[in-house]
Task: inverse folding
């Protein structure tokens, strides 16, 4: 019995360990949260630029379609940012 166990243990010790599977970068909750945070940051930058554009429209054109479109864009971007923040962060 000793001989059999010795041979088994030496054969076991000689076998290399199985290679570990590389972890995919896009696996996991942390990656998804980081990606959504990046999207939120980009939307925030776009919203800030749109807000600045809206603020630069002269007061006599505040009833124009340009101002209404800029205002609508800011509102929609705010809503998208809020929804993403609630869902993923």
Result:
């Amino acid at each position: 019995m000793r001989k059999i166990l010795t041979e088994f243990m030496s054969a076991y010790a000689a076998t290399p360990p199985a290679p570990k599977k590389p972890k995919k970068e896009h696996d996991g909750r942390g990656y998804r949260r980081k990606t959504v945070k990046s999207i939120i940051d980009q939307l925030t930058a776009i919203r800030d630029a749109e807000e600045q554009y809206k603020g630069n429209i002269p007061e006599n054109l505040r009833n124009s379609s340009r101002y209404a479109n800029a205002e609508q864009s800011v509102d929609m971007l705010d809503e998208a940012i809020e929804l993403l923040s609630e869902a993923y962060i």
Observations:
- The chain has one domain: 25-88.
